Amino acid sequence: MLVNNAGIYATGTVDELTVEEIDRAFAIHVRAVFVAVRAAVRYMPRGGRVITIGSISAERAPWPGTSLYSATKSALVGLTKGIARDLGPRGITAVLVQPGPVATEMNPETDAVRDMTALGTYIPPEHIAALAAHLAGDGGSYITGSAVTIDAGATA
């Protein structure tokens, strides 16, 4: 099993971002996933899992300055679908987990973000881990090429 979970939050409007910032964001969010999957599947048996942690920002840019972050997270949708097709014949699944607001050092809690969720809360990190554990187990055997959203209703 491989769980990809790395990210940065490069912000700025499309006219402000530098090429270096663009390259760095794509390198961390997309290229690193591709390279990690490429390396791991050589050792992955039938029934293996590729789980990538993305973001609900793959489907929305909630405010100005998030175009780069959203673009890199959107790329993970296509990459996950392609990985599922490539590795499905080997019995390996690929799933993208798309969390909404999770309180982290990179994403401290604010009332504005909390208020945009239907449940009025951030998602505890252990709930993201529990979803990944489910997908890694027998319950995830037939889930592949999909994006699973866990966002406290932020996209409702």
Summarize the structure in words.
It is a single chain. The chain is an alpha/beta fold and about 160 residues long. It is built from four helices and four strands; from the N terminus they run βαβαβααβ. It has a four-stranded parallel sheet, sandwiched between helices. Helix 1 (about 20-40) packs parallel to helix 2. The radius of gyration is 16 Å and the shape is globular.
Features:
156 residues, globular, alpha/beta, 4-stranded parallel β-sheet
Compose a concise summary of this entry.
With 156 residues, the chain is of the alpha/beta class.
Strand order of the largest sheet: 1-2-3-4
Q: In DSSP terms, counting alpha (H) and pi (I) runs of 4 or more, how many helices?
A: 4
Residue stretches low in confidence (pLDDT < 50, at least 5 long) are none
Shape: globular
Topology pattern, helix = H, strand = E: EHEHEHHE
Structural class: alpha/beta
How far the N terminus sits from the C terminus, by CA atoms, comes to: 31 Å
Describe the main β-sheet briefly: 4 strands, parallel
The share of residues in helices is 25-40%
Write the layout of secondary structure elements.
Elements: E1 2-4, H1 19-40, E2 49-53, H2 67-87, E3 93-99, H3 111-115, H4 125-136, E4 146-150
Helix pairs in contact: 1-2
